[in-house]
Write a structure and sequence with these properties.
The structure holds two protein chains of two kinds. Chain A contains four helices and two strands, in the order ααββαα. Chain A is α+β, with helices and mostly antiparallel strands. Chain A has a two-stranded antiparallel sheet with strand order 1-2. In chain A, a hairpin with a 6-residue loop joins strand 1 and strand 2 (about 85-90). Chain B has helices spanning about 5-20, 25-30, 80-95, and strands spanning about 35, 45-55, 65-75, 105-115, 120, 125-140. In chain B, strands 1, 2, 3, 4, 5 and 6 form a six-stranded mixed β-sheet that branches. In chain B, helix 2 runs antiparallel to helix 3 (about 80-95). The longest helix of chain B has 15 residues, at about 5-20. Chain B starts with 6 loop residues before the first helix and ends with a strand. Classes of the chains: A alpha+beta, B alpha+beta. The interface between A and B is medium-sized, with 17 and 19 residues.
């Protein structure tokens, strides 16, 4: 017979186990990715206040409220089963620092962390294909 | 305020300012009121603020290559003005080619995220703002 014939054989129990574990692994991987971004934010504050941070740099730590409010929150869609993780800063003044105000230049801290993770998030999902 | 990283970022900010200032619609709306980071106190609205957000050298190719993000917004006490201003900002920058001198080539300039923040209430006045975050990519000429 000419041509190429490829046959794949696998253990059904292995496949079943992988499928059963996939949602949990997906949740863990996504949460780890989000936590990594949140940790990155916390590692890049502009030192302690005083002095205040310069414009376009992350804020300096003053009371620690903003630092404590940066968290990664996982959300699972009930319809699709998809998992999302939101990295958010819950402090009331967080958006003022991130986007700036009429009287203060922006001190972005969340968007740079996302940028630093660009192209690196895939490594968190290698666990999904692990044996 | 200058983004970190050397000459290319200064060139980029200067070119960005030139590009915004060269748009006739935006010039009609805000005049010369284009500022980096923050407008000086008592600047009459409307005006445009551009702010370095993040970015740097990508280290993705042997040739020097940079990707930076700027937040560019129009501020005003009149909501309709910020809508018009944001439209002019977009028209001035989207797919534009910045002149970065003899050694750098701007090959990408696009809106990455729209910004429409809620208004700020300051001393009984509502300050509106609208614009976008633009990504600018440039590499060194061979």
């Amino acid at each position: 017979m000419s041509g190429i014939h490829v046959e794949l054989r696998g253990s059904m129990s292995l496949v079943e186990r992988w499928i059963r574990q996939a949602p949990q692994r997906n949740l863990e991987a996504t949460l780890a990715a989000g936590q990594s971004v949140a940790d990155d934010v916390k590692e890049h504050w502009s030192g302690n206040y005083p002095p205040a941070s310069s414009p376009a740099n992350p804020p300096a730590v003053r009371s620690g409220e903003l630092d404590a409010s940066v968290i990664a929150i996982p959300e699972e869609s009930l319809s699709s089963g998809g998992v999302t993780v939101k990295v958010t800063a819950l402090a009331a003044h967080a958006s003022y620092l991130e986007f700036g105000t009429r009287y203060m230049a922006a001190r972005p801290f969340l968007r740079p962390a996302i940028y630093r993770h660009r192209g690196k998030l895939g490594r968190f999902y290698k666990v999904l294909t692990a044996k | 305020m200058t983004a970190p990283g050397g000459e290319i970022f200064e060139l980029m900010e200067t070119a960005l300012l030139t590009q915004l200032g060269g748009h006739s619609g935006l010039r009609t709306l805000v005049g010369a009121n284009l500022y980096s980071g923050q407008a000086p106190d008592k600047t009459p609205p409307p005006y445009v603020i551009y702010t370095f957000i993040h970015g740097g050298f990508t280290n993705s190719s042997p040739r020097s290559d940079v990707s930076v993000f700027y937040q560019v917004e129009c501020w005003s006490l009149i909501q309709a003005e910020v809508r018009t201003g944001a439209k002019h900002i977009y028209n001035a920058l989207q797919d534009a080619v910045l002149n970065l001198g003899a050694y750098w080539n701007n090959y990408y300039l696009n809106a990455n995220t729209w910004l429409a923040r809620p208004p700020e209430n300051v001393a009984g006045k509502q300050w509106w703002r609208r614009g976008a975050v633009f990504e600018i990519r440039a590499d060194q000429r061979s």
